Amino acid sequence: LFLTKNTPRAWIMSLGPDEFLARANGSHESTQQWEFSQMFGEDDETSQDESTDNWISSLSFDSTGAYLAVGYNCGQVVVLYQEDEHTYQLCCEFKSHNSEFDCLTSTEIEEKINAIEWYPFSGKNPQLMTCNDKTIKLFRVAMPNSDHDSGFPNARPRRVFQGGHAFNINSLAFNSDGETFISTDDLTINLWNVEIASEAFNIVNIKPDNMETLQEVITRSDFHPTSCNLFVYATSKGIMRMGDLRDSSLCDRPCKEFSDPAGAMGGFFEELVATISDCKFSPNGHFLLSRDYLSMKVWDLRKVNEPVQRIKFHEHLIPKLCDLYESDNIFDKFGCCWSGNSLQVMSGSYNGDFYICDAFQPGNITQLTLKANDSTWGQFDTSNKALHLDWHPKQDIISVGAKDCGYIYVRKDNVEDES
Question: How many CA atoms lie within 13 A of 410 on its CB side?
Fold first, then answer.
């Protein structure tokens, strides 16, 4: 019995890593067909405002897929809810962060939403966490109740976590225990209790005694989906390190270190293209996904020296690396994500393109272009970047953010099967 899109996800999640790999490697699905479902936000082509304030900076489905949260550079957050099988409607919107001035460093703290994470065990009133460069906030989305006069959902702040980071926060991740979460900046990772905003425990600190000797920074982190003691963080050297909270309260020495020296391209741009911009545990907890500038890599947690698969879809950019370096586009941070059944992965690119790939079948890559950018086919447009994306945890529905618009696509054969 091989794994397909119709295999029950609960059964897939119950498989051990060896059995899962054996069945996944035997799966041979035809090229995926995806259908545009809807667009939300303001179409950049019709907007007269050249500012990037209204551009999407993060987006995330909740653990049920019923809600989709979208964060913007202006500090605004929009929450959508799943009205039917394939469409989302506005639930509520609110201002999460405002710009501030840090008097100690004489720098402005932008209101841009760097990360959004949903609390994994929300009830009727789901909770989500947002952050800008320095401050983390937890909100409860209050749904209409017959006991209240108001018939409209709204977001209410529950808790503010601040003062824990000297450097800019780049990611958040909830623990599977439902009690704690981690926040990550360039040099440190802090562990917080959801109910306690006054203190955090530093679990990773790579800051050298002399900052002039700094050789790498932390770019992203993630908690294991089921093992509350395991977390992983990625660095600018293309390395992922796994920490185990059972070993030590300070996890500066990782229990595992994932690196791919055989995949290095060498040359002047080696370290820039090797920088990992995103990393995610698979939903079944057996694998890791990393995204660098030129590729995605799928890792078996038991094999640290070589990925299970290298998914290369940016090879055509190698001749353009000099131009991309001069325009600073080589520093773009593309996200990545898993499908809910741990069989496919997805990431974005330029020209409004994004790629849906089989995680374990080499060469099975589906390239799609965002609907509003079909007219740019054949051109190379670095301004239109599909940086932010996520996959519905229970259905083949994906959301992609580029500029100030969000797009939702549905797997076409799913639509045909249901109709």
Answer: 17
